[in-house]
């Protein structure tokens, strides 16, 4: 591709501009990805990320592209690791837009945790899904979708019994004004076939 040749020719020029080199690698990775040259795209993005000390914004963009591609191929553990690396790295950086970049990395991390857990549920591996949702909730304890996935996984593992239900009932009773506690208890009740109306009332309380 002439565009890739042009980018590599420019990159080979001793222009001494690290930001320009990072931008070149970022653009090259995107072109290669469009052409289905997965390994080469990853190499280009990895090179771009190596300039994070001098071009942190471009390095973060390359990391985001890399993570999106990883997720596209179902490599969620790796994509999550990339997003977490961006979050950690950017906390030490100062440039315009840092808060938004950190927010985007967090959003990507959450999205891929959920995708990983839901895929594991779809494939019937409830114990692995449970571990994934647990890992997500360790990082995001207020995330409704994480609790929904965890309770679904534990239901499939046969863990929802009277003691399990009472644990969530006690939490809800102890935190009457906490919507998440009420929602979790209502969700647990939805798996108790004998009490559909009670579950519905509990969920209505949570979202009221």
Write the layout of secondary structure elements.
Elements: H1 2-12, H2 18-34, H3 38-49, H4 56-72, H5 76-90, H6 98-122, H7 126-139, H8 144-156, H9 162-174, H10 179-190, H11 196-207
How does this structure look, described?
With about 210 residues, this protein is mostly helical. It is about 75% helix and about 0% strand. It is built from eleven helices and no strands. It has helices at about 1-10, 20-35, 40-50, 55-70, 75-90, 100-120, 125-140, 145-155, 160-175, 180-190, 195-205. The longest helix is centred in the middle third of the chain and has 25 residues, at about 100-120. The chain is elongated, with a radius of gyration of 22 Å. The N and C termini lie far apart (about 55 Å). The model has no long low-confidence stretch (mean pLDDT about 90).
What is the number of beta strands?
0
What series of H and E elements makes up the topology?
HHHHHHHHHHH
Percent of residues in β-strands: under 5%
Report how far the terminal alpha carbons are from each other: 57 Å
Number of helical segments?
11
Name the shape in a single word: elongated
**Roughly how much helix do the residues carry, as a percent range?**
over 70%
Low-confidence segments, given as residue ranges, are none
How would a crystallographer describe the biggest sheet?
none
Rg is 22 Å
Calculate the mean pLDDT score and round it: 88
Q: Kindly name the structural category.
A: mainly alpha
């Amino acid at each position: 591709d002439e565009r890739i040749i042009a980018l590599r020719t420019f990159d080979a020029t001793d222009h001494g501009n690290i930001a320009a080199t990072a931008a070149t690698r970022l653009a090259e990775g995107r072109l290669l990805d469009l052409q289905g040259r997965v390994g080469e795209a990853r190499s280009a993005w990895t090179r771009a990320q190596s300039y994070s000390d001098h071009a942190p914004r471009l390095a973060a963009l390359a990391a985001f592209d890399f993570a999106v591609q990883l997720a596209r191929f179902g490599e969620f553990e790796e994509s999550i690791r990339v997003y977490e690396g961006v979050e950690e790295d950017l906390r030490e950086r100062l440039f315009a837009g840092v808060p938004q970049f950190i927010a985007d990395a967090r959003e990507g991390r959450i999205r891929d945790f959920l995708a990983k857990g839901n895929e594991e549920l779809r494939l019937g591996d409830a114990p692995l899904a449970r571990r994934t949702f647990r890992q997500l909730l360790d990082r995001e304890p207020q995330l409704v979708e994480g609790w929904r996935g965890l309770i679904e996984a534990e239901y499939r593992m046969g863990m929802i019994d009277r003691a399990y239900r009472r644990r969530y009932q006690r939490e809800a009773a102890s935190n009457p004004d906490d919507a998440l506690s009420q929602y979790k208890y209502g969700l647990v009740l939805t798996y108790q076939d004998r009490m559909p109306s009670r579950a519905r009332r509990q969920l209505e309380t949570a979202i009221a």
